[in-house]
């Protein structure tokens, strides 16, 4: 499995057959370039203050699923900035929709450790590859809302992340699921805005079947909303404000 993403400069390992069926692994030359361009120049150049809350809740080793709120395209840079190789010594592997893996953007994502997943109906290949990564102690990122949501409304999650967490637990793989709240100074982030990210205490999936998935998703949604409230307070835009 590859060991490098936009968030770091670690050594590159061989791509597994299952990985090669979904993406191109992580390019050892493109990844460090992308990290400088996206995080050092774009993210830190666009925003004013960048704040991380609850970093003590982020596991530094072993499998972990990051479950962030999805408020802007900047979210995909906030996660590597707050939890990537420079911070934790390991990479963020993003699970994204198939549409995101098309065109020029898809060309880059294919080479930066991202791979497609249908959260409503995950394919066997994507589930198996996700399990392969978790069994190897990787750090996966899935936006369980499935889309960018700028309006203030109750958080509603697809069941893909819950199913993956329950599957991992059934296979004996301990996977903490870390709820993440991300916030910006405006619903549509503007240059100079503050941006904040809050890690909440990890959750663990238990049980089997649809009811267990629904119960876990409900608890995860509540934790994500609480984390987002904390992040929104930092940027001076509490829930319910414009």
UniProtKB/TrEMBL annotation:
UniProt KW keywords: Acyltransferase, Transferase
SMART domains, sorted: PlsC
Molecular function as annotated in GO: acyltransferase activity
Keyword Magnesium carried by entry: no
Keyword Acyltransferase: yes
The Phospholipid/glycerol acyltransferase domain, residue ranges: 64-185
SUPFAM superfamilies with a match to the protein in the record: Glycerol-3-phosphate (1)-acyltransferase
The protein's name in its UniProt record: Lysophospholipid acyltransferase family protein
Naturally occurring in which organism (per UniProt): Cyanobium gracile UHCC 0281
